[in-house]
Amino acid sequence: MDEATRTTAGSPRAQAALVSILILLVFLGAWHLATLPKAASQVVDPEYAKLVGQQASTGQKSAFPTPSDFGRKLFEHLKDPFYDRGPNDKGIGIQLAYSIGRVLLGFSLAAATAIPLGFLIGMSPLGYRALDPYIQILKPISPLAWMPLALFTLKDSGVSAIFVIFICSTWPMLINTAFGVASVRREWLNVAKTLEVRPFRKAMEVILPAAAPTILTGMRISIGIAWLVIVAAEMLVGGTGIGYFVWNEWNNLSIVNILSGILAIGLVGMLLDFLVGRLQRAVTYFE
């Protein structure tokens, strides 16, 4: 083995990848052992086992799946992710598309509202102090607590879900934007004042570049919260979306489909965080 190969194999990234693969293999091995008939009978709740027996007597399979069962079902989902056989039978790709669309729309509306408002709050100490009590009261409220009010006023479950995403995405972006703007170095603002730079130009060319990393941190936090909340919101309102998919499969006692939905939720959440994180690193790099 030459020096270059040894260096690559011994790099921290390669070592981390090897450890990750080992963890996955151990997890799959433990899963396989736990779903062996004898082991499964010792860990399954008796009431659930009774229900499983009733399902089995009617020809329906609802026992906890093995890794191979999960792999086969995952392949089925990937083979035809966008099928549509009616309101309660849509492919996992369609369900994810609805959820992602709601998240992106609610997140975009929140960004269009929270970032300009955060700018105004951050540039005005008086405004910051005046609005801070309201922010501190509204921020801790669970986004799902707004769902009944949204359903009552908006009369549409899909729009209500988008409104909930808007609410939960607003606070991290608003607070981080206000903090980032308020933290811009006084020397830079004094130079802009000395040069008689107009307010809009000062905001775009001095304050925004300085506050951009903090703003993007708020956006990254918001997109993660939004993806968490949309799953819970769709479980409540039903219809379409990956949250509804998971809840509907629970009603059908299809554990393997629930696991497929959970994996899809995790992968999409990782992708959204990765994309915003890459944007954040790019902005920091070009500062």
What would you report as the Rg, rounded to the nearest angstrom? 25 Å
What order do the helices and strands follow? HHHHHHHHHHHHH
CATH architecture of the largest domain: Orthogonal Bundle
Total count of domains: 2
Distance between the termini: 42 Å
Care to count the β-strands?
Answer: 0
Helix tally equals 13
User: Strand share of the residues?
Assistant: under 5%
The fourth-level CATH homologous superfamily of the largest domain is MetI-like
Task: Specify the biggest β-sheet.
Answer: none
Spatial shape:
globular
Q: State the name of the first-level CATH class of the largest domain.
A: Mainly Alpha
Helix content class: over 70%
Unreliable spans: 56-61
Query: Structural class, from secondary structure content?
Result: mainly alpha
